[in-house]
Amino acid sequence: MKRSYAFFISSQIILDMTFSLAAFYFAYELTLLSPHRGLNAFDTYLPEITVFLFVIFIVFAASHLYRHQRSSAMLDEIYNVSKAITMAMLLTIAIVTLFLPNKFTYQRRMIGYAWALAIVFVSLSRWLHASLQASLQARSIGADRVLIIGSGEVGRMILQKITHTPSLGYKVIGFVTTNGKLVPGTIMGVPVLGHRADLPQLIEQHKIDEVIIAWPEATHQETVGLVALCDQKKVGIKVFPDLFQIMASEVTIGDLGGLPLLTIRDIALRGWRIAVKRTMDILFSGIALILFSPIMLLVAIAIKLESPGPVFYVQERMGLDAKPFPTLKFRSMRVDAEQNGPGWTTFNDTRRTRVGAFIRRYSIDELPQLINILLGDMSLVGPRPERPVYVNQFRQSIPRYMDRHREKAGLTGWAQVNGLRGDTSIAERTKYDLWYIENWSISLDIKIILRTVLSVFTDRNAY
Length: 463
What we know:
The chain has three domains: about 5-140, no CATH class; about 145-240, Rossmann fold, CATH 3.40.50.720; about 270-455, no CATH class. It contains 15 helices and twelve strands. The chain has helices spanning about 5-30, 45-60, 75-100, 110-140, 155-165, 200-205, 220-230, 245-250, 270-305, 355-360, 370-375, 390-395, 415, 425-440, 440-455; strands at about 145-150, 170-175, 185, 190-195, 210-215, 235-240, 250-255, 260-265, 310-320, 325-330, 380, 410. α1 runs antiparallel to α2 and α9 (about 270-305) runs antiparallel to α11. It is globular. The protein starts with a helix and ends in an 8-residue tail after the last helix. The model has no long low-confidence stretch (mean pLDDT about 85).
């Protein structure tokens, strides 16, 4: 293990234990404020607190919460921490009751406070720790040195992703070509270091920590050969999958009489799931329209005062089963914005009005689509609808693009909360949309809605 990994993981363990102990102390103080407290001195609870700290370490380790992670969503972290702390608290009560009955002084209110505060304190400490770790790795402190095998489109896409997400903790040292010819030069500022046959020497020379194989068209034999070359040195290996369909589907590993098989399942919304999703749409959109109606009224007045023309912009989009429907948005551009035909919105688009730039920045222009949701044309969560002219273009060049029309279009989606909105790759968006369709759940929808709310003020691709 790299020393930087050991430092990050060790510091995380220390923070978890410290904040868990702090949770018990503040729980004790809160209980003291309650009537009929009947509490002993704090040190009488140290045996069960010690057991809790030991158990929480074991549960966190078993839940893979001490693995080196590139990045994780805050909501996912809170969910995982909540599960682990709940399990640790239950196990602690069981262990102390069974093995330390004379030491156990049960205080339900204190235990309840400690459980809630531990979730809050540990989640907060992990967020602070992750922010510090990301900041250090963005400055190449503790970052992994990476080689990308494959200088084609996939290799460039991976480089772009790493460059735009420095918090992942990767520093790309160079590319390795996969064809027979080596043409010295650079790709997006990163040097081409050699041919795949040179891998062992390049890994040794440049002190590489991880290799990413970005050669999806490689044969099975070629991929195995690359892995074998990398295995000569102690490096991590990641392989970009070669099947677009596998990337979008849920893949499980099964067996056939002991032989491993990959199972690709197609889990579209069916039966009762449709009724549940529709119920959520009606409830959430109805409540949101009531809550946001004052803001919508103010926006409508501002649009009318700034520029001539209608308040709403009605545009035909394609939704479920590729059927067109009129979507509602607050008008954010001049009335003559599309006099030369439809155009893709870009950063600092000169067609926007001043009010339009503001409401697009914070996605306020899309609030009228709550009416589309209430009417049943759209859903709260789903693939974002596109205009027919773009759908006809994309269906010719992007595999399985039309599969995203198997479900209703959404106000927000899995692609959008993962930063794929605005002038970003349609192919990448499609992969995320298909993954959502085939892995739908109520909890996933709620997670996407919460992440959408949290990203309103931080999304740089909203323009």
